[in-house]
Amino acid sequence: MNNGILTFENVAIHMGGREILSSTSLSVQRGEFVCVIGPSGCGKTTLLRAAAGFVAPSGGAVRRNGEAITGPSREVAFVFQDYGRALLPWRTVAANVSLALEAAKVPTAERPARIARVLATVGLAAHADKFPAQLSGGMQQRVQIARCLAQEPSLMMMDEPFGALDAMTRESLQDELARLVREQGLTVMFVTHDLEEALYLGDRVIALRANPTADKPSLAAMIDVPLPYPRNQLTTKEHPEFLRLRRALYQYLGHH
Ligand SMILES: Nc1ncnc2c1ncn2[C@@H]1O[C@H](COP(=O)(O)OP(=O)(O)O)[C@@H](O)[C@H]1O
Ligand SMILES: [Mg+2]
């Protein structure tokens, strides 16, 4: 359990007088894509926030590369569902990406090339000078992802990042993200409500339960997703193993 890039050791988190996460232990390996599912309010966002150092555990430890996490770090990027609020409306696409470089105190002279590179990576090279309001939702979410990539994180926390997008846009962003993660060797924790999205993207899927207790800890199920890469919106979703896992997770969520 201790050799992961990110490790939760018996983590408990209390907020507002309630135990939100209980006895949570898990380890994420470098380069792994871990999806997190579970009913609304079960602590998925809290789990990601703890991994990013935004919230401290009240029991146990969260470690990155073996070191206890004490606060936010540029090593960990966070992508929010609400791209509309994550981007500054008065800054252009390039200037929004630049925020990550300014925070990291990257010398001004180096910024344009790095901004151009990440915008090209997410297919937005032609839109650098536009403002967020001039872009579709999918494009705005690409800007947020580009800004995270500019940070050159080793870990990406993604909290229902495609939840507000239409189905077609969501599928194309899923494929783009899967490619990016593999090309850049990123490690990802990805929260979603969508079982198919979890199975399509994940190397592993973790299911959390609501109202955890000491004998029923937050981590309710953990499954490996042994589907071949690169995944494909048609063939992967028709794969017998995909259908089998989808059924298992569906029944699991239905019962909890
Ligand atoms: N800052 C906070 N203070 C008090 N309660 C909180 C806080 N943040 C989240 N919660 C509560 O913790 C529970 C889990 O929240 P969250 O992690 O956002 O769940 P999920 O992302 O799975 O929907 C919810 O009941 C929520 O109301
Ligand atoms: Mg949430």
Outline, from the CA principal axes?
Answer: globular
Task: Provide the spatial order of strands within the biggest beta sheet.
Answer: 6-7-8-3-9-10
What order do the SSEs take from the amino end to the carboxyl end, as H and E?
A: EEEHEEEHHHHEHEHEEHH
Query: What's the helix count?
Result: 9
Specify the helix fraction band: 25-40%
CA distance, first residue to last residue: 27 Å
Low-confidence segments, given as residue ranges, are: none
The CATH class designation is Alpha Beta
Overall residue-averaged pLDDT value:
94
Total individual domains = 1
Keywords:
Rossmann fold; 36% helix; 6-stranded mixed β-sheet; 256 residues; binds adenosine-5'-diphosphate; 10 strands; 4-stranded antiparallel β-sheet; alpha/beta; binds magnesium ion; globular
Q: Describe it for me?
A:
- This protein is α/β, with parallel strands linked by helices and 256 residues long.
- It has a single domain, classed as P-loop containing nucleotide triphosphate hydrolases (Rossmann fold), CATH 3.40.50.
- The chain has helices spanning 44-51, 83-86, 93-103, 111-121, 137-150, 167-184, 195-201, 235-238, 240-255, and strands at 6-15, 18-28, 33-37, 59-64, 67-68, 76-79, 155-159, 187-191, 204-208, 219-224.
- Helix 6 links the parallel strand 7 (155-159) and strand 8.
- Helix 7 (195-201) packs across helix 9.
- Adenosine-5'-diphosphate (ADP) binds at residues 15-16, 20, 38, 40-46.
